[in-house]
Amino acid sequence: MIRHSVILKLKSSISSDEKQAFFDAVAKLSTIPEVQKFEVLKQTSPKNKFEYGISMEFDNQEQYDIYSNHPIHVHFIQNFWINNVEDFLEIDYVKIS
Fold it and tell me: CATH number for the 2-94 domain, one of 3.30.70.100, 3.20.20.450, 3.40.640.10, 1.20.1260.10?
């Protein structure tokens, strides 16, 4: 199992409509068949600058690669991520046996 997590901060210049469109596009990522345990989270700690988290799981590297190259994901990155995200941290985990 691979847990893919992205922690992000949106650009302060985006409008509320752009923010809503961004999160609508994020939700569409959950429709990619390989995606499991999809969550969108709001960061609550004042300890860091990030605002939101997106988390999902994949059974294996092959499924993760299919997701990464899926047209829905590629469209999201090109049309929403690049235009709206100021900073992010991406972490991919595997369970320690």
Answer: 3.30.70.100
Angle at CA of residue 17, ends 47 and 29, nearest 5°:
70
- The model's pTM: 0.91
Pair of tokens at residue 95: 């369970």
Place of tokens 């752009």: 18
Q: What is the DSSP letter of 41?
A: E
**Both tokens assigned to 4:** 């893919």
d(CA 46, CA 21): 26
Q: Quick one: average pLDDT of 5-25?
A: 97
H or E segment and range at residue 67: helix 61-69
- Mean pLDDT for the stretch of residues 74-91: 97
For 52, the enclosing helix (H) or strand (E) is strand 52-58
